[in-house]
Amino acid sequence: MAEKHIDEVTGIETTGHEWDGVRELNNPLPNWWRWILYATIVWSIGYWVVYPSWPLISSYTTGVIGYSSRAEVATDMAAAKERQKVHLDKLEKASLQDIRTDSDLLNFALAGGRSAFNVNCSQCHGSGAQGFKGYPNLNDDEWLWGGTLDAIHHTITHGIRNPDGEEARDSAMPAFLKDETLEAKQIDDVAEYVLTISGQEGDAGAAERGKPLFTEHCAACHGDKGQGLAEFGAPALNNGIWLYGGDKATLVDTISNSRSGVMPAWGKILDPVVVKQLTIYIHSLGGGQ
Ligand code: HEC
Ligand code: HEC
What backbone torsions phi and psi does residue 191 show, to the nearest 5 degrees? Predict the structure, then answer.
């Protein structure tokens, strides 16, 4: 080894490394820094022994206390289920009406209904149940098939115009042009009449001609004043709330070709308690009847 070399400027020993006359000062790490380093090494060895840490080929080291965050979540979930079970059992037995009057059950049903709605219903009815063209808004107080608890429960359980249920809500508005029941000119007149009963501007002469056509061909389902009829799922035409649209072109299209909204029978897909919770939730949204 070469002789020790002391840097003249700082008075500190150098390491002996030298590059083209540039030398490196031999500044040892401060003690406090080294001790923290040793402490962390000791800590991590202790951690490896106590907690699960090292991956093995098909498992991992479990640690001496056998802690598992997965097991902890499972216990938490089981405890939450146990707490819910009390409520779910009560919900199962209670009638829809009873649930409405028991504020504890009501809140539980509303929370469950809201989350089931987000998972199963929002893709068609919108995340705020506001609806889209052909998919009804469930917030307003206009009901195609009735807004009582029982009516809503039936609609959700059996669905609408689906092929897999005897009890599904069913009805078919004729396609008046396709079926050749009315001529294009008559459809134009009846559409003008629908414009006027829904409070929009229409051609008065045409509406006058459309009125008897409406009475003859439409009133059986939509009511003599266009107030709608839940028995046939026929929407009100006199209130400015539209499922498909109330402008002239859309009216002519609907009357000419008809529509047929379809909804699955949720009773076949979801647990009966969930259907109950959904019923309570939907009823609460629309200021149900
Ligand atoms: C695949 C699309 C779709 C999904 C998903 C869907 N719906 Fe519907 N729903 C419809 C359509 C379409 C109608 C209207 C059918 C008609 O024109 O009569 C409707 C109508 C309804 C009605 C009747 C409204 C009234 O005014 O009488 C209720 C209540 C309803 N849905 C609740 C639900 C609930 C609760 C869910 C979730 C469990 C759900 N819907 C999921 C398509 C859907
Ligand atoms: C057999 C019963 C029936 C008859 C008759 C009928 N409708 Fe309908 N109408 C319905 C049903 C049911 C719907 C809802 C269709 C759906 O949900 O897809 C509907 C929907 C409509 C709509 C769409 C409303 C909206 O909110 O977008 C209009 C407009 C309409 N009918 C006009 C008429 C007119 C005009 C006639 C007569 C020329 C008529 N309907 C005859 C059952 C009927």
Answer: -65, -40
Residue in 259, 267, 257, 276 with CA at minimum distance from that of residue 161: 259
Burial class (CB in 10 A: 0-12, 13-18, 19+), 112: buried
* Residue whose CA lies nearest to ligand 2 atom number 42: 173
* pLDDT tens digit sequence for 38-97: 999 999 999 999 999 999 999 999 899 888 888 999 999 999 889 889 889 999 999 999
Report how far residue 256's alpha carbon sits from residue 206's, in angstroms, rounded to the nearest whole number. 17
Mutate to test the pocket of ligand 1, among 263, 269, 281, 284 (most ligand atoms within 8 A of CB): 263
Q: Please, are residues 117 and 129 in contact by the beta-carbon 8 Å criterion?
A: yes
Tell me which residue of 58, 80, 57, 76 sits closest to 68, measured CA to CA: 76
Tell how far CA 133 is from the center of its chain.
18
Atom 10 of ligand 1: nearest residue by CA position: 263
pLDDT band for 151, please (50, 70, 90 cuts): very high
